[in-house]
Each structure stands twice: as C-alpha cells, then as structure tokens.
Amino acid sequence: MRSSHPYTAIFGAAFVAGTVLEAWNLLSFTLILKIFSPLEALQWEASSVLGNAAYSQGTGSAALSVVMHYLVSLVWATIYVFLFAKRRVVDMHPLLNGALFGTVVWFAMTFVVFPLGVGTHIGVNALSYFVGIIANVVCFGIPLAYVVRRLE
Prior knowledge:
By secondary structure, this protein is mostly helical. The chain contains six helices and no strands. The mean pLDDT is about 90.
C-alpha cells in the first residue's frame, strides 16, 4: 500500500517501530533485567524530564513517557524517511538500512539524549551496550525500514 505522501510512511513507521521498541523496553526492564516494576518501566522516559519525581506521579508520568516515546519515534521516522526514502534507497536494502539506522539511533540516544536527562541512568556495561544495540536494530530500525518501504 504505497502513498504519495511521506507523512503516511512517517506516522506508520513511528507507530509500529515505537510500539515494538516500547514493548521490548517494558519486557526487558521488568522481566529480564528486573530493575523496574511495569509502572516504573513506563515512567522511566518521563524521568528524563521530571527527574526521580516521575516515579511518584503514578499513571500521569507513565502516560507522559509513552507520549514522549512516540514523539521521539516520530522524529527518528521523519529523519529516516527524508534520508532514505526520498533517494529510493528504501527499496534496495531495508534490512541493512534498518540495522544501520537502528545503530545510529541507539548511539545518539545513549550518548547524546539520555545523558542530557535528569532522571534515572541505568547501569552501563558491555552487555547493556550489546543488548541496547540489538534492541534498537531489531525492535526499532528494521521495523521502521520495512514499514517505510511498504508505505512510501
């Protein structure tokens, strides 16, 4: 289902990739790493803006986190569409494009965006870097690339 308007691909890709990555974050923070409760996992992104007070604000800060997550996904999807889709590179190698873009997103978020936040900083080691890159590639970059390829 191709659209002549790039916003269809941007919003569709942001929604799909954002949802897959948010589901992974919820799963990994609560069941795998066991560092947050489900509510705290949802509040984590709001803590970047609100600080540790986000964890005492209940579902309001969880809702803010979800909105923030989708806004960030929307920004990354917009960047992807205007970098790749307009040059028709999306039709050639969506798996490779998505993997590379997911790695770039992880790098920018880990070393630029998250350190600017005032909230909880999760412990960093080689394993967390590896898992973070894989999560961003598999749960964000690749779904984003395939949705853009389908809709653009």
